[in-house]
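Structure, all two chains, one model.
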Amino acid sequence: MKSMPRWSFAAFLFILAAGLFGPLLFANGPQSTVAKPFAPPAWMGGEAPPPLSASLSPEQPSLSIDWKWTAPENISIRGTVLFDDSPANASLVWKTPDGKTFILGSFSGSGEWSVDIDARDVAFKTDLGVAPFQSALGLLFPSQGNIRISIEGTSPSSGSLDVTVPGGKWGLLGTDQRGRDVLSLFIAGIRVSLLVGIAATLLASLLGLSIGLASGYLGGVIDSLIMRAVDVLLSIPVLPILMVIVGIWGKGLWQLILILGLFSWMGTARTVRSLALTLRETGYVENLRSIGASPFYILYRHLLPEVLPVLLATISLGVPGAILAEAGLSFLGLSDPRVISWGRMLHEAHGFGAFTAGAWWLILPPGLGISIICLVFLDMGRAIEEMADPRLLKGGRR
Amino acid sequence: MRSYWARRAAGAVLVLLLVIAANFFLFRIMPGDAVSSIVDPRFSPEAKERMRELFGLDLPLHSQFFIYVRRMLTFDFGLSFLSQRPVWDEIRSRIPNTIALLGSALLLSSVIGTWLGVHAARKRGGFVEKLVLISGSVSFSFPSFFVQLVLLLLFAYTFPVFPLRGTVSIPMPQGTLNLVLDYIMHMVLPAGSLVLLGFGSWAIYVRNLMVKTLGKDFILLARAKGLSEERILWNHAFRSALPPVLTIFLLALPGIVSGAVITETVFSLHGVGKFLLDSILGHDYPAAGAAFYILGLLTIFSNLVADAAYSIADPRIRVGRRAER
């Protein structure tokens, strides 16, 4: 037995950790909009503004932004401030570089002032005197220079107003067609790939193990019937069947796992069967039979432990198939649209104009993610296979 | 030989029946039946009953099944829910495209894969063997649509060498030669990507087989006779490894058909696989069933072709001894 550490085991642990804990790194969750659609990664440079967020508070009642770009896609100001003075009279004032002043909102009364401004709101636009179908941002950002936002009048005692301008570039991997953070989506996709790959393969292996053991150990008519069925199932293309079943039955994640498991046990069954055939003829199994051990006892207590190491290898080698099948179905649009997966990301990139936007960052990360995770499982499978070489079972050790 | 063919034909008929049965039952487990999707809820129960009679839904299940088998065998697939035209008319024009895609991909990847595999086995540790091992890993782990999307991004958007989508340009080019060239230009990326993804696993299988064969005694004898390396490689070693190589074809086929479905979607080809997806997404069950059936038929037919090639390549079958597979 070799106990050489393989890179793939470390990589697997890393991927597992990333899948489990990675999403916690993102405060907002993958579904929230962070920048304009198809914003390129921040490190690519270019003429786009970075995302901007600042807040107005009692300590800092006015903000000054040095704006060096064309008008952004949107601006939002949200939050609550409290006034001790009663009655209070305050207003939110926006001063453009060319000296114009806009009152974005005002408050009179006492207590709490809640502000929720989105520059795309029709009410907000009409207040500024812009037609509903026009953009208010040209007014707010008419030219490059210094923009001042301030709370005038009574000064607030506590609370804050958050000013956010979505950037024209974002993070490590940019944004998708809805302005979502691709890095966050990518990390969220690890979970689905791992879950579907491992759960479906475990199910398939369990099926393959029981069918293969039964077929190999019992032999006879059962064996030839099962092997005929395996031949037939292996000669039909699986993807069209999966497409039809998913189309009829529904696109849920657990349904997908179940279906994938039900259609990928054949390889394991074959491997286990041939092992069981060999083991059946060994001396100790014959001795067990002669002292009256029941077939179930022999299968469960003696053949199963012998087969397990090999089974571990077939599980690891089978995971890429399940991951690729899930990704393929998701890519075709046959997956739950609410579940973020790498296949789904590629589906959306293909369907929502990532090409015309030249957004390679929507295509490379999920594709390479699938490939790398598959390579890791393949290499792990080969390593386990070497450790549990079936030749050891036949000769040497015993 | 007779018994071999009888067994193969029986197998093909069995698979065909299974495909039809799967179709029959899959599309019957969905809620409602063929009638409930077209009748108006305001229809009287008598009218509904008459409709069910018209569609044969009042018959017992087994006679429904026999009627269904007969309709499938005569390509009578009924009307499409979406277009209200006969499904067969819709699907007929798509079959040649799918066959062209599948055929060219299979042929090229098997020829390239076999050639590379044989050469990898001849020079162990050489450049060709490394290439084969790497391309094998790639074809086992890279999703086809990802590779295709990257190719599309590179060769249709960034460097627009090949057309983006479809099987013919709009407007259609004039003249037969131009039409053929246009068709080939549209097929280069889809078929090429399938070859790129397919030849690796093929080459690895062939290499493994050839490595085993080249270690056998009769190769040593051929060397001792002083035959040329080329001749030993192809006439002796490859000739004896050919039958198992053909069984790889059988193993690879379902995967390639699945790959074609995805490929047709990526490149928006006018093919059966794209039709299957569109029908499933549009809940057009007669059309989806027909597309599934046609894909099954194509697989079964290619299986039979591979069996024929196998029987020619394996002399034990030709002279009538029991084949051992």
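The beta strands of chain A are 52-56, 62-67, 76-95, 101-118, 145-153, 158-165.
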